[in-house]
Amino acid sequence: MRVKVESEAEKLLAEAARVRFEVEAAGQRAINEAANLLSSDQISLQTKLALLKVLPELVRESAKPLEAIDSIKIVQVDGLTRSSGGGGEGAAPGGGNLASDALTAALSYRAQAPIIDGLMKELGLDGGSLEGLVKGAPTATADE
Prior knowledge:
This protein has a domain at 71-144. It is built from four helices and no strands. It has helices at residues 2-36, 40-63, 98-122, 130-135. It is elongated.
């Protein structure tokens, strides 16, 4: 008798799972059909809303490396990396407020850092520390 009851209970559980999966599938199908009816403007809005949901976390995570920075000193020499204020298409320095200019300069340096690091390595300079920069490149010996 007990085996028969357990068998019947197992059949009922399987039937309940089948019904649940059918209902979930029907619900997902309805969601997919509704999504297919959306206009491109509605899809664009949904994309922007999804971006707005994750934006605070994205900004927080991208700013984490900045927490380790004690201070920033930016020495800008116009003409080396940007247009020299002659009204060209390049970003003219001083075009925004102080925070905007500082951020632009920092991002500009960060974009050029791999090139500068590579050049320093070729010259035998260690840019990882002040001591490495002050020590300079190794001098050539007479037998080289």
